[in-house]
Amino acid sequence: MDYLKISVPAGDKITVNADKTLNVPARPIIPYIMGDGIGIDITPVMINVVNAAVSKAYQDARSIAWMEIYAGEKATSLYGKDTWLPDETLTAFNDFLIGIKGPLTTPVSGGIRSLNVALRQALDLYVCQRPIRWFKGVPSPVRNPEDVDMVVYRENSEDIYAGIEWEAGSDKAKKIINFLKKEMGVTRIRFDENCGIGIKPVSEQGTKRLVRQALRYCIDHDRRSLTLVHKGNIMKFTEGAFKTWGYEVAQQEFGATLWQGGPWFSVTNPKTQKEIIIKDVIADAMLQQVLLRPSEYDVIATLNLNGDYLSDALAAEVGGIGIAPGANLSDTVAIFEATHGTAPKYAGQNKVNPGSIILSAEMMLRHMGWTEAADLIIKGITGAIAAKTVTYDFERLMEGAECLNCSAFGDAIIGHMS
Ligand SMILES: NC(=O)C1=CN([C@@H]2O[C@H](COP(=O)(O)OP(=O)(O)OC[C@H]3O[C@@H](n4cnc5c(N)ncnc54)[C@H](OP(=O)(O)O)[C@@H]3O)[C@@H](O)[C@H]2O)C=CC1
Ligand SMILES: O=C(O)CCC(=O)C(=O)O
Ligand SMILES: [Mg+2]
């Protein structure tokens, strides 16, 4: 494939077998997006840390050929002012299968509502996987932060997050409101003259494929429970249906049966013979549950917007979004990403915590099967935090810590790999 602006480095493609397992060469080409705002601070630090971990784990036997691809503001300067997400960026992710990205600014104008959402939808990255774990020494507002060990499976392609909405007063909004009133018998739109309208699509297929992956994760990683989080008491045919379809997939595809007479279910993990409990909690209650009783929650499957809120709230329990990693997954393509945004007020200051994108890269290495390098990253971060050498976000909450800048924190992580 000839690209317009992307230079393909010397290296090899990762490929996928029919059974979805990966063939990872010794020098895989990994596409990355630098990201807007603080992307220029954190992404180079992530690359340094990953290179150090790979080199320490495998010496010359393995290395990564990093290939920069473009989205966001950098894309507009290279491809033209309205090109926020070039086609060849999507092609590159499809071609090379595994990539990583920094945060992207949502364009203030133009047809794209959010570049992140557009990317997820274009590549059908329907799982947003966000693990939340605590590193010893990290400041936390909860009494026993070591109990916070959860993995959020957020549906990534549907819900109100799909961005189907019309501005108040626009012809289209008026048309929809008229249709709802005249054709659908809707009488409960308050202030219908001046009302924006949003649509919340939630499908059986979309729900089931997400919950299926979450349950597979529980089985493969010996997890104790799966909690379906929804607001189904109010939004019965979207959030409520998510719960119903979630339990259905557990029963129909995993053989789940009622647990202790119901209403929850359980399934025996075929790998460990242990019981996995499948339960559900209403979204608002869940936000207090995870603060007060975090040990009762493990893997969580939820809709797109709930997952967005819940993953940042959980991140706050383990140090904040500066250290919360994530992955966007389809059946073949995996894009790892910092879960925070572009934090424009800090852009270019070499100040912020690069932990989120570094831990996203750690997930990427594990996904590739390079577990020794991934383990070294965990060792490095654990060591740097234990030594109280941290970035401003942790330092301001820790007693007696030394405040490092973004790149120095990366160096501290590398230093603690030994
Ligand atoms: N996946 C993505 O690409 C995402 C993109 N966005 C986009 O980012 C832009 C800005 O969004 P905004 O709502 O301000 O959210 P941000 O996540 O960019 O920043 C909010 C606050 O979180 C803290 N923070 C964020 N990143 C770090 C870090 N690496 N280290 C330490 N602290 C950090 C800072 O807190 P403090 O001020 O306390 O230091 C910061 O002011 C928007 O355009 C939004 O659409 C948002 C979320 C995800
Ligand atoms: O796309 C955006 O601008 C925000 C996305 C976001 O907050 C998230 O995915 O967590
Ligand atoms: Mg978010």
Automatic annotation (TrEMBL):
It comes from the Bacteria. The keyword Oxidoreductase applies. It catalyses: D-threo-isocitrate + NADP(+) = 2-oxoglutarate + CO2 + NADPH. Its cofactor is Mg(2+); Mn(2+). Residues 29-413 form the Isopropylmalate dehydrogenase-like domain. Signal peptide: none annotated. It is an enzyme of class 1 (oxidoreductase). Pfam families: Iso_dh. SMART domains: Iso_dh (SM01329). SUPFAM superfamilies: Isocitrate/Isopropylmalate dehydrogenase-like. InterPro entries: IsoCit/isopropylmalate_DH_CS, Isocitrate_DH_NADP_dimer_prok, IsoPropMal-DH-like_dom. Its EC number is 1.1.1.42. Keywords: Glyoxylate bypass, Magnesium, Manganese, Metal-binding, NADP, Oxidoreductase, Tricarboxylic acid cycle. Homodimer. Belongs to the isocitrate and isopropylmalate dehydrogenases family. PANTHER family: ISOCITRATE DEHYDROGENASE [NADP]. This is Isocitrate dehydrogenase [NADP]. The gene is icd.
